[in-house]
Amino acid sequence: MSAAPLFRRIAFIGIGLIGSSLARVVRRDGLAESTVTCARSESTRNAALRLGLVDEATDDPVAAVKGADLVMLCTPVGAYRALVEAIVPHLEPGAIVSDIGSVKQKVVDELAPLLPARVSFVPGHPVAGTEHSGPEAGFAELFVGRWCILTPPPGTSPEAVDRVRALWLKCGMAVDIMDAGHHDRVLAITSHLPHLIAYTIVGTASDLEDDLRQEVIKYSASGFRDFTRIAASDPVMWRDIFLGNREAVLETLQRFTEDLTALQRAIRWGDGDKLIEHFTRTRAIRRSIIDAKQA
Amino acid sequence: MSAAPLFRRIAFIGIGLIGSSLARVVRRDGLAESTVTCARSESTRNAALRLGLVDEATDDPVAAVKGADLVMLCTPVGAYRALVEAIVPHLEPGAIVSDIGSVKQKVVDELAPLLPARVSFVPGHPVAGTEHSGPEAGFAELFVGRWCILTPPPGTSPEAVDRVRALWLKCGMAVDIMDAGHHDRVLAITSHLPHLIAYTIVGTASDLEDDLRQEVIKYSASGFRDFTRIAASDPVMWRDIFLGNREAVLETLQRFTEDLTALQRAIRWGDGDKLIEHFTRTRAIRRSIIDAKQA
């Protein structure tokens, strides 16, 4: 490879499913001269080194960002603020701070005021994932064919945005730029509400009497198991997402509840035509997703 | 093959996803000396013949059941009653009437009084499926490793139950016998509620303003697309299921709504501990399903 790496040194702060998948692409394509991760737990650090995901591992975020021209926050979003407060004095001039969190407005509101003018802030969200967690769960192909959304605050250096964009393009993603608040409204319906609903219904099932619960597991192939997959995602990450995008989630949930009440009424009153009309409409949406190659 | 076929002649009344998958197994394993399907639409009959799923196809249910020792109802459950009223005088002595519907108590209540003593009634539900419909969508492996539930009314001939069980065992299913009402309670939570929720949330998304709806499709990989898959199932079939299992669906929905309200409150009031507790519990259910090999 004659081309220079995209980055001199990338610091992955946290290295779970997304961070470790990105680290695998960076290693595979030689996108950084060196890499380091900061992780609180020793077993995570050991796994990251054993799997060869990074060159170095530390539990000290200050040590991790030393010499890094890209600091990628890959922890649950609730941990960002304390981390950034700790690393700010030690960020290299010209460094880029980016992230992979599923909530963006809160991240911009919290972090932008903390970051000095000598660094660039390019918040991001690679819209990809599985229900698995941790550095072992990652894989380089996770991002292929999916979208990454960047939400740089007004005034962010275009060069910094371009470098982060180039990184996600190398992962096989298409990259969109949008306003952080708009991102949160879109993700509230595509991701946050579906997860909330799945967490709810699986909880409802787990509260059933013992014998019925055993049967629910046995016959889960009839629809339920798809919800349990979604409801197996990382609890801390999802707590932070729901609390971090509270307003949009609650508003979307309100719409959902109204629609559910309408279907409930149709069932109670035996209004078959209304059910058919609704189910035919939702089938068309599935068709659109297949056409958009996101199925 | 020296063993005699399980059945002399099987009549498939309706031949969609499930019926055509069963017909494929019957053909593959030589489980009947001859087969016939009754389907209203000419294109379905032509497809069934073109695909070699059955020996004969007719639009006349009376002609279809002539000479059949197994009449398998494979239409949406709402069509059963009129069909059975039409075929009853023409059923062979000793014939078995069975079905594949996702609702059982209503089917037993409606059909058992119509059926004469000279035939056996063995209602069934192979708990398997995909979001696709029609004879082209079926495949013989659909049932492998899944459960089939039979709900014979008290007094049903054990020999008839054994013959229907043998058929589903040949499909690779495990077979359970249970009370029809219990079946409906279990399926309300494992299948009917998940489908209702999926239909609702996809409807909520389809009501969004145009630009937002386009983005929902674009970023559907973040959770939403799993719901759209479920919400693409056959509208008529699902109308009949919700209306046919109304009581259990509404009761389960009530529990779900209470649980959703509790999570909504936790988000509104920022109760992160409650969210973590809930999400950790649902993760354990996923583990049970993986352990039960139904993931």
How would you describe what is shown here?
Two copies of one chain form a homodimer. By secondary structure, the first copy, chain A, is of the alpha/beta class. Chain A has two domains: about 5-180, 3-Layer(aba) Sandwich (Rossmann fold), CATH 3.40.50; about 180-290, 6-phosphogluconate dehydrogenase C-terminal fold (Orthogonal Bundle). Chain A has twelve helices and nine strands. Chain A has helices at about 15-30, 40-50, 60-65, 80-85, 105-110, 160-170, 180-205, 210-220, 225-230, 235-245, 245-270, 270-290, and strands at about 5-15, 30-40, 55-60, 70-75, 95-100, 120, 125, 145-150, 175. In chain A, α7 packs across α9 (about 225-230) and α7 packs across α11 (about 245-270). Chain A is globular. The mean pLDDT of chain A is about 95. Chains A and B meet through α7, α8, α9, α10 and α11 of A and α7, α8, α9, α10 and α11 of B.
Strand residue content of chain A: 5-15%
Largest sheet of chain A: 6 strands, parallel
Q: If strands are numbered along the chain, what order do they take across the biggest sheet of chain A?
A: 3-2-1-4-5-6
| Helical content class of chain A | 40-55%
CATH superfamily of the largest domain in chain A: NAD(P)-binding Rossmann-like Domain
Ends distance of chain A: 35 Å
Give me the CATH fold name of the largest domain in chain A. Rossmann fold
Coarse shape of chain A: globular
Domain module tally of chain A? 2
